[in-house]
């Protein structure tokens, strides 16, 4: 009977140890579930941030496209203006030559008038 009591006492102590270990395991499991919950929240927040940043990137891309289009329009306007300036320079050179010819004719006529007078 004493051996049975001793065996029962030993098994009771063993059961207590197992119960304590089970409590530790359950506590770790709850802690890990809480951590998992925090990670899920963080993943959700990161997904929202990625979505927000994706929108910002798309807006920046569109702004860059718009700026490039505007730059291309300005380049075309500059090219047009350079063309107009080139035409104006040519016209001015032509007018300058005509003036030289008229000045020469006027000088010649003045000389002839002086000779006739």
From TrEMBL:
Disordered, as annotated region: 1-20
Name of protein: Uncharacterized protein
Phylogenetic lineage: Eukaryota, Cryptophyceae, Cryptomonadales, Hemiselmidaceae, Hemiselmis
């Amino acid at each position: 009977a004493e051996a049975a009591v001793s065996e029962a006492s030993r098994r009771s102590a063993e059961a207590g140890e197992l119960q304590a270990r089970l409590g530790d395991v359950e506590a770790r499991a709850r802690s890990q579930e809480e951590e998992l919950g925090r990670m899920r929240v963080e993943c959700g927040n990161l997904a929202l941030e990625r979505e927000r940043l994706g929108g910002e990137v798309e807006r920046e891309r569109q702004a860059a496209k718009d700026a490039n289009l505007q730059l291309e329009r300005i380049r075309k306007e500059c090219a047009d203006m350079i063309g107009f300036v080139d035409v104006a320079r040519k016209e001015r050179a032509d007018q300058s030559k005509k003036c030289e010819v008229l000045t020469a004719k006027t000088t010649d006529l003045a000389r002839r008038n002086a000779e006739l007078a």
